[in-house]
Amino acid sequence: MKLFFRRFGELGQPVIILHGIFGISDNWVTIGRRLAERFDVYILDQRNHGQSPHSDTFNYFALADDLYEFIQDHQLVNPILIGHSMGGKVAMNFALENPQKIDKLIVVDMSVRKYPPRQEHLEIMQAMLAVDFNEVSTREEVEEIISKRIKSPRIRMFILKNLYHISQNRMAWRLNVQALFDNIDNVFEGVESPYTYDRATLFVKGGDSNYIREEDKDLILAKFPGAIFKTIIEASHWVHADKPDELCAVFSEFLEKECEVNMKN
């Protein structure tokens, strides 16, 4: 599958960034631009997200295969791989199965374990599926409908980034919501590869998030024995949105190259 991507910077070692579920490449532009001062940065839209193609198949095998194809197509040598949430699990699966293909791994707020279904995810998808685009023509109408299930204004704004016009008077979701809904159990699966990844690995936890627990560290180290752990205080699961400067500083320390912190999105 040929994935849509955004590229920032053309010099230095390649960096690939993978967003989480319901996300798009645009969510990581601020961090990508900062990294682009030192690296050649590629931010991908994963399948069924953003401007990438849709498919009824949605699991970590397929997502990792898409990444493999992207690296081959763009002839990327020793890229650094950064994945957030679902993207973190894609990155982990890829690193374990293709350790020779990447130089370093960064996982943002995601563990290797299987997660129980999260009601929040189901409510988001149900809210999106409740929108009949034959009946609405404005962003405000869409927001009113999804607000019945999505109470958080912040999450509504995050989801509404997936809204776009396919014609002057007709909108749609960029997300393949039905495919995500049908395959959501796959997203919560654990990292089951029998292999280990011995190269430099960083796990970043949001201080206010429960996605990485203390007891997860032994599970992570069993598969990534060189892993180091950093916590960003007062950051939720969306670490890159809450604390971009602090995240850049953590990246800089790990990558041993300064991540610019004062650039505007």
If strands are numbered along the chain, what order do they take across the biggest sheet? Answer: 1-3-2-4-5-8-9
- Roughly what percent helix? 25-40%
- Rounded mean pLDDT score: 94
* CATH fold naming of the largest domain: Rossmann fold
What does the model show?
This protein is α/β, with parallel strands linked by helices and 265 residues long. It has two domains: 5-115 and 189-255, Rossmann fold, CATH 3.40.50; 119-182, no CATH class. Helix content is 35%, strand content 17%. It is built from eleven helices and nine strands. The chain has helices at residues 29-35, 60-73, 86-97, 119-129, 139-146, 153-160, 177-182, 184-187, 216-223, 239-242, 244-255; strands at 5-8, 14-18, 40-44, 80-84, 104-108, 163-167, 170-173, 201-206, 227-232. A seven-stranded mixed sheet has the order 1-3-2-4-5-8-9, with helices on both faces. Strands 6-7 form a two-stranded antiparallel sheet. Helix 3 links the parallel strand 4 (80-84) and strand 5. Helix 2 crosses helix 3 (86-97). The longest helix is centred in the N-terminal third of the chain and has 14 residues, at 60-73. The chain is globular. The protein starts with a strand and ends in a 10-residue tail after the last helix. The model has no long low-confidence stretch (mean pLDDT 94).
Entry keywords:
globular, 2 domains, two-stranded antiparallel sheet, alpha/beta, 265 residues, Rossmann fold
